[in-house]
Structures are given as structure tokens and as C-alpha cells.
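Researcher: Here's the sequence for the chain we discussed earlier.
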Amino acid sequence: MSNYQSSLESKLWAIADDLRGNMDANEFKNYILGFIFYRYLSERLESHLNEELSQDGLSFSEAWEDSRFKEALKEESIRYLGYFLEPKFLFSHIAEKAKVGDFILEDLTASLNFITNSSLGTESQDDFSNLFEEVDLNSSKLGKSQKEKNKLISKIILNLNDIDFKLGDDEADVLGDAYEYLISQFASSAGKKAGEFYTPQEVSKVLAKIVTLGKNRLKDVYDPTCGSGSLLLRVARECKVGDFYGQELNQTTYNMARMNMILHGVKYADFDIRQGDTLEYPMHIDKKFEAIVANPPFSANWSADTSFLDDERFGAYGKLAPKSKADYAFVQHMIYQLDENGTMATVLPHGTLFRGAAEGTIREYIIDEKNYLDAVIGLPANVFYGTSIPACILVFKKCREDDQDILFIDASKGFEKAKNKNKLRNEDIEKIVYTYKNREEIEKYSHKASMEEIRENDFNLNIPRYVDTFEEEEPIDLDEVCDELQQIAIEMEEVDSEIKKYCDELGIRAPIF
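Model: Thanks. This is the structure I predict for it:
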């Protein structure tokens, strides 16, 4: 990490502290992330249009004063960026008003609305609609009076204005990475709610490396429970990605995901993030994906309506996942959307490895009938936000190269303690990926279980059944123990003798029994 990036992250988190006393982390993240995004959109638009106008010797603000340029400027911005802002709605203009103590809340609200409204009726409409919905500038939590609210928001705007985002540099991901850092910080402060929007980067890295093995380019990648989009973006760090697809139930988190994509330089035409319930209302059901990554909510509730037995995603299994445990419903959904040449890696609670009834039937069908399960990877406990239970990664392929066995990896012991969480180290991540890639058997760490072994265990995938991690205790030398006890007895007699001697001198009874 560069000194600049480290400094940027520290400054941004310090600004977030201004709101900490007014509301909890899950609320004030919407304001900070929203304002950072607003400034980014403003500067990106101004930079692009200034460059387009450079041959005319004009700046965007100057050209906007000439009515001949107005329509062309708007069309160019919508075409290239997907949105538009008039100069008076730019972040820099709002910051100038804040500097002199002007009331900025109305102008700021108008600016955020202008971004959304500028995309209406265009190809980018879905990517910008209701994007700033959670930035409520009238919230009583910002202050009791309009004056107090204006003072607090002005302070945040001015502090952000003092930071150089270096958007013109080649390191385009610096701001995106800082944004990711803020999301992770909010996650660590948000407790249980954090699991709704963030997968720890170390776990994301394992998933991303697995689905990109042997590939330098992916046609597309999909996450059916995409949260803030961090997992999708992690895949793009491992290889080039053509298009990003995702769906997210929570409106606030959905907004965060779209912002995250754009901040990382993903053009609006190259991502399709939708809002809604993936199991009930899948938005990309007509597509098959080369890579699928996911960290679905553990054992979530879903309707499990019997009509789903007529749904192509679930019908062939003959059983539906239980109402109170949708884990396998997500697995079935993802398998349906996985392309023939694709790889899917998903995080699941350990219970999915051995629970019976309907889940056992689904598990057996996936393994015995389809032979899609490629690997089971056990993770350490307490690595996720919002839960301390141990989890696992299941890897699926429709066309498996090694279809005679399933690889089991017990990575539960490889971690370091970090504050109140456990964290995978780089060497832990590399060992998991290396072992998976080479399908290597390592004593007390990994094992290739034949299909016969799996059947003998009634398709129970509990990792200790396949990876023996038992550490034999050193034999105890009983003669040595007796010698130690004898020596202790001798020493006790000597001490008692000393105590008696002192007590006799004092003329009192010795406490020896």
C-alpha cells in the first residue's frame, strides 16, 4: 500500500468520525460513501468534458455559458459516463458555497437528484436510479435545526474537498480501494448487520482465485447476493472480466454496490446490478455465467413454496430446501446459472455439509447424479462479520477435469487473530489455492475422497470424516511422574519443618496437619 493510499484512508475515516456520535455505523456510512461518490462523479465529469473541450480552448464551465454547446455537452456526458451535472451542481461549486458559510442543503439535494434524473430514459437509467436515496439531508440525526444540519454537512463537504483524490493519475483504483477500506471499516463497526453487505477480503480472495484458475479473461462473473459488490470486483483483480452481474435484496446495499462498481472504473454498460429477491424474482435467469461467486446469507428464510418444484432451477432435485434454511436453494439457483465451462465457488455454513432430510437429498443429487461438486474447503471459525460460526467454501463445476474424486481441504487452523476476528494470512490463502489447483494430498490438511468413500458416508461431507487432523498426545512416563511427586513430598516436609521451627520460637501452634 502506498503512503498516499494509507493517508487517504486515514483521512476519510477521520471524516466519518464527525458523524459517529449522531448515528450508528450502518446509518452514517450512507452519508460518507454517498458524498465521496458525488465528488467522484463531479470530478470525473468535469475532467472528461474539459478534455473534450481542450481543442476549443474552453473549460466545461465556460462552454456551458454558450447555448450552442449545452446540448452537445449533455449528450456526450450521458453517452460516455451515463449521467450529467450542470456546473452549478458540481461538488466544487457546493464546496465553495460551504466555505463562505452559505446554506447548502437545498443545493446539495438538488445536485444529487440531478444526477439521478439526468439518466432517466437512457441506457444508464437502471444504474443511477435512486442512487442517493439513503442520503437523507433532512434527517433529525444530523441536527435539531436546519442550521445545525447545514453546519455538520458543510464540515464534511469541506473536509472531503481538502483531500486530493488524484483522479487523473494512472492509479485509478486508489480511490476505489479507499472506498473498499471504508466499507470494511463500517463492516467491523456495524456488528451483525455487516454480514449483509461485506465479505472479508481474505475470503473474497480465495473465491476469486479459485474461479479464475487457468484463465486470463472471463466472459462474465455473477454474484446472486452481491452485497456491496466487493466480491465481484475482487474477481477482476485476478483476471480481466468482460461483464459483471449481480443481484441484491437490500436497497441500501444495492446502491452501495452500484457506487462501488463506478468508483472502480467499471463503465455503466459493463455491469448489470439489480435489486430484488434472487430466489423469488431472479433478474438474470436467462443467462449462463462463466464464473459465479457468492456469500449468501447463512440459513436465511425463504418461502419454499411448492410451486418451485415446477421451476427449472429446483424441479429435478425432487425436494426444496427447508423454509428456515435457504442455503441449498441458493446453490441450486447458482448451479442452474453456471455455464458448462464455468466454475462456481460459494461460502456456506458447515451445516450444509451434513444436514439430512431435504438437504441430504439435494446434496446426494448434486454429487451422485450430476457429479458437480469439485471441492470442500473448511475455513476457520470467526472470520466473518456478524457470525462466529465456522463456514466452508464449496466449489462446483459442470465439466470436472477430475471427476473421480472430491477434494477436501481442512484450512480451519490457518489464521491469525486480529482484534475480535480471525483473519486468513497470505500464506493461508496461497496454501488453499495451491492445494486446490494441484489437488494435492497433504497429511492432516487435504484428502481426495473417492466417490465410493462419499457413498459409504451416505453423502455426509463433514470434513473430519475425510481429513484426519487428530494429533496423538505424547505418551506419559508414569515412573517420571512418581519421581516428581516424591520430590514434591520431600520439599513439602522440608518447608513444614521450617514453619514448625519458627512457630516454636514464637510459642504458637504450627499449622501442620
